[in-house]
Amino acid sequence: MILGLVAAVGVWATKQSLMMKFRRKPGFGAAVAVSISDAGVEVDGNQSRSKLEWSTYPAAVRFNDGILLKRPHSIRWLPDSAIVDGSAADATELVASKTCLRQVR
Fold first, then answer.
1. Residue 66: pLDDT band by 50, 70, 90 thresholds?
2. How does pLDDT run across 40-63, given as a tens digit for each residue?
């Protein structure tokens, strides 16, 4: 019982710590357009535009509602609900071919 409580508090504290870290970053919560292709990931925001090769994101996680691209000290969330062109299956297939994709269901 105590071990379960300690684990739950630890998960909560970790989540809060991560959110505080990301909230301090400039541009946190800003809307951006993200395009993925064989060439890489393109991010277009109000203040900047970036073209990144897939090697920038060595890992990704597929959740029920989107894909999380991971790189050292940064993440990029790609929600399925924001897909304009293509499908979630297409995005998953492309990301899996370019990164080490882990499935979480």
1. very high
2. 999 998 778 889 999 999 999 999
Length of the chain: 105
Question: Can you tell me the distance from the alpha carbon of 12 to that of 27, in angstroms, rounded to the nearest whole number?
Answer: 24
Q: Which residues contact 77 (CB under 8 A, 6 or more apart)?
A: 66, 67, 68, 69
Nearest alpha carbon to residue 29 among 18, 45, 16, 42: 45
Of 17, 11, 105, 26, nearest to 66 by C-alpha is 105
Of the candidates 36, 43, 46, which has an alpha carbon nearest to the alpha carbon of residue 85?
Answer: 36
Is the pTM above the cut of 0.90? Answer: no
Pairing of strands 59-63, 49-52: unpaired
46 DSSP assignment: S
